[in-house]
What does this fold into?
Amino acid sequence: MDAMKVDPVVVRAGDHIVIRMPSTNSKIVCVKPNTTIGLGKFGSFQANALIGQPFGHTFEILKGGEIRPLEQKGFDDAELTSANNQNINDDPQSQKLTFAEIEELKAKGLAGDVTAQEIIGSLTENNQTFAQKTEYSKSKYIQRKQRKFMKSFVPLETTVYNLNDFFFEVNPGKIRGIRVDTLSQVMSLANVYSQARVLVVDDGQGLLVSALLSRIQDGLVFGVHEGDVPNYDILRYANLPLDMRDRLLTLPWTKLHHQMHPFTEVLPDNPSENDRNGFERRQRGHAKLAKSIDTLNGGEFDALVISTNYSPVSVINKLEPYLGGSRMLVVYDPCKEPLLEAYTMLRQSPAFINVQLTESWLREYQVLPNRTHPLMSTSGSGGFILSAIHLASS
Amino acid sequence: MFHEYKKVIEEGDLVVAYATPESMSVIKVSSGEILNNRYGNFWHSKMIGLKFGSKIQSQTGTGFIHLLSPTPALWTQVVPHRTQILYLPDISFISLYLDLKPGKVVIESGTGSGSFSHSIARTVAPTGHLFTFEYHELRAQTAKQEFAQHNLTDVVTIEHRDVISNGFGRNNIADAVFLDLPAPWDAVAAAKQALRADTIGRICCFSPCIEQVQRTALALNEHGFTDIRMFECLAKNHEVRSVPLPNIDEAISGNKINFKAIANELKSKKRKMDIDTDQDILVSKPLDQVRGHTSYLTFAILAPTDN
It folds into this structure.
């Protein structure tokens, strides 16, 4: 069997991509042709040089914004030695280069006149205590400097994981604080599959909607939203194929009980260009609304997934009638309290069974030869999930 | 079925007979057969025509069960354990990290009890595929029968094969590889061959012991995998209840409160005691015993190898 090709294998013009920088921080950029992509102190490069390149390689930024693949260095082979920090004191004087000299080196580095390796070489040479450090400590020192001075990056796809990871880091409020492990559990619990029709309330700017769309092919994602148009900002980073956009239907809360009337407007005689455009726009809007309302009223959705700023109980009560039998309700919240009342309500409701409230827990480790340990700093909370199985109406 | 839903139960359908979260089983509906459990006897013939998610009374009317659609998550809870299995938090995290979705091609070894296999199949179907390998002959046979019974043969290919000695027998095909083996480091070279050469490949190695992680990470590094990252992932179940939280004035005035009795009443939702209800609060805490460790998840990516 031939491998399926569901995703682009190279960076395409106009796509959003994730750039992982030497600091291990990430950035999302749009690869617009004929532009320069700036990575701050890590330099800048020509977007055109990246278009057509595969994901996952490390690229070095050369003078003039050219890039070239960089041989990735693996683990260092630092070994246990008898060196220790017995005779090393905190002393800013141990670095013999002056502030001005270091700044000059950095400026030359940015201009591409000296390499990161050369900068790091000068720093270690002029560091009087470097030689006394343990091999592990030397390695850590060099790595720390590499994170600062290397002018390289790794282009990665805007997968759901990468998008979630990025926004959780830079703007958790935007995605209502949902962490990757929690989002992944929401997807499993909701039993999203290719043909699933999912009803969703996503007040986290479309991360949930993006995740759901990524897991359906012939299914449907139906978003009920605040305001006239949905704020699913994160969708624009997901590089969805155009036909996938048709798999998303939306409806404002204000139209939940809306009675649809036939479209009766007629185009006036001798319409102006403006008349015609307005008429067509209203006609399309009417058709779109009618389609959404029909779809919602058809009910029998395969999952109801909720992340909302409103009372979960009130949202569940409004949307429960549209959920099919033996289908999953999954509610995410960054805090446990809004879910407690909902939990109690579901436990008492004859329409739900197997009500569960869970808190997700994730711990990342540094893995290095003889230096494996949990990361010193980590996220304190990834949120809570309330889930239940909805029964068929009798 | 496991990778799609149906609305109405028909002859030959798989149904999860659900009594409680701790008591459920998967049956194949076949008129003439009777499901016996401690909640009573249930005639299969009476299930036919009911909607999934319906309640059904036992023959004597004394007990009842719910008839649910089978899902990978429910299967994880009922699958006969032939090996240590993967649970929902790990399954979910690995699936998202490996970017599994419809159309993706995945390699899994070993198949074990098939808990994760069902979830992968559901996620990559109908256009993707799972190739799963199990070196234990009987386990491979049993899993093969299960995949057939669960109508997953279009999506899942299982092979009885020792991948450490013989590799996967397939090159340049997989978007992602999952290794749950005693010595995953010995399969890293084969995994590299199996991953697609034209695009980024992802791997996850699942090992309970930290020493295994060390060796796996070294092997991944040696074979050119990058971005080696390791995680532990768990989910804690919380129990929710109402508890009385009276003002200390009650004690000062000598009004002795039987906390245990009130808690029991709140639990049974039949409140008789004369205590101000405004003083009840909803509380929750993790269960006293929770799973503390499953395995370490070591991930890495493989940049395209064909250029």
